[in-house]
Design brief:
The chain is of the alpha+beta class and 332 residues long. It has 3 domains: 2-107, Tetratricopeptide repeat domain (Serine Threonine Protein Phosphatase 5, Tetratricopeptide repeat), CATH 1.25.40; 112-193, Immunoglobulin-like; 214-329, no CATH class. Helices cover 51% and strands 17% of the residues. The chain has 7 helices and 10 strands. Strands 4-1-7-8 form a 4-stranded mixed beta sheet. Strands 3-2-5-6 form a 4-stranded antiparallel beta sheet, with no helix packed on it. The two termini are 63 Å apart. Mean pLDDT is 78; it is low at 5-16, 184-191, 193-207 and 304-314.
Length: 332
């Protein structure tokens, strides 16, 4: 009797815990959907992951994959779609064919990175990490996200070496750890393959990514500087046109706009044309200065990994016959 009561109590506790987990998972799922609609992908993907941990499901797994895909984390999205496909196959879910299409469609875009060791190299005492995660297999490609990745390695507590390896969307990169005799690691040789190229891959070389936002800041300075020069030129043209216009009025128009002779009409017309051109140049210069300032301010800062999501933004000054302005676009 006591045993039955105990089992019943345990069953009730387990049922209550399961219900609580489902309620929390549902709340996290709704939160993830809202955050993803606001393009707050980092928080959205985290919410979906937590929801799936509490109450695993094919639908939640698909939302994890979609969140990473929209965020640009193609490697994680591909792996998440693969997991959803495996879940659908095990459950004989009708969504399996559609999920398989998603996996195949993303396969060619998911970057791969292969870490190799020289032939006959022993792994005894060797510690290798990729973005902080320990690497235990070598010579096999990892599916990873586009962008820079940090590889650190050491032997038997020796000096730690690290390299940043940039990986492109759809790219296939190989990294060989150069471990000479004596067991101390030296450098990393990187071979990058373009999946669309028909030629042989580049020779081995060390690759270091440029500081994030450097080109955007330089572009902002150049565009802004050009805008300042344009404003200066337009100001000079305006002053010159005004002087010529006033001189023509005094010399050929008797100081009145309606009493000009033929030469006065020509001179005042030329002065007005110069003034109109100066106005267009001034507007274009102002747009260039504004675009340069925005370009400089919106350039990503910090390390390359932190600025990966922001680097897709762009700001370009634009001039048309109807006026001038600034084109602002990208991922937000």
């Amino acid at each position: 009797m006591k045993l039955s009561a105990t089992l019943l109590s345990l069953a009730l506790v387990a049922g209550v815990a399961s219900a609580n987990n489902k309620d929390k998972a549902d709340a996290l799922f709704k939160q993830g959907k809202k955050l993803m609609s606001e393009k707050r992908y980092a928080d959205a993907c985290e919410a979906f992951e937590k929801s799936n941990k509490l109450d695993p499901g094919i639908g939640t797994q698909l939302n994890i994959a979609k969140c990473y895909e929209e965020w640009g984390k193609i490697g994680r999205a591909f792996l998440a779609y693969q997991e959803a496909e495996a879940m659908a196959k095990a459950a004989k879910d009708s969504r399996e064919p559609k999920i398989h299409e998603l996996v195949e469609g993303l396969d060619s875009q998911a970057p791969r990175l292969t870490i190799k060791l020289p032939k006959d190299t022993s792994t005894n005492g060797l510690t290798v990490t990729l973005d902080g995660d320990k690497v235990t297999k070598f010579g096999e490609p990892f599916v990873i996200d586009p962008g820079p990745h940090t590889i650190e390695y050491s032997i038997s507590g020796g000096a730690k070496k690290d390299r940043v390896v940039p990986v492109e969307r759809g790219g296939d990169s190989e990294v060989t750890l150069d471990i000479p005799k004596g067991g101390k690691p030296d450098v990393i040789a990187v071979v990058r393959h373009d999946v669309k190229a028909d030629t042989k891959p580049d020779t081995k070389q060390e690759v270091q990514p440029p500081p994030p936002g450097r080109n955007m800041r330089l572009g902002g300075i150049v565009i802004g500087g050009a805008g300042v020069i344009a404003i200066g030129v337009s100001s000079i043209m305006t002053l010159s046109a005004r002087g010529k216009y006033n001189d023509a009025l005094d010399a050929h128009c008797g100081g009145m706009k309606t009493t000009c002779d033929d030469e006065g009409l020509t001179l005042t017309h030329d002065a007005r044309s110069t003034a109109n051109t100066a106005t267009v140049i001034f507007i274009a210069g102002t747009a260039a200065v504004a675009g340069g300032v925005l370009l400089y301010l919106f350039a990503p800062h910090g390390d390359a990994a932190e600025s990966e999501e922001k680097s897709a933004r762009y700001i370009v000054p634009a001039v048309s016959p109807d006026g001038a302005g600034v084109v602002f676009g990208g991922n937000f």
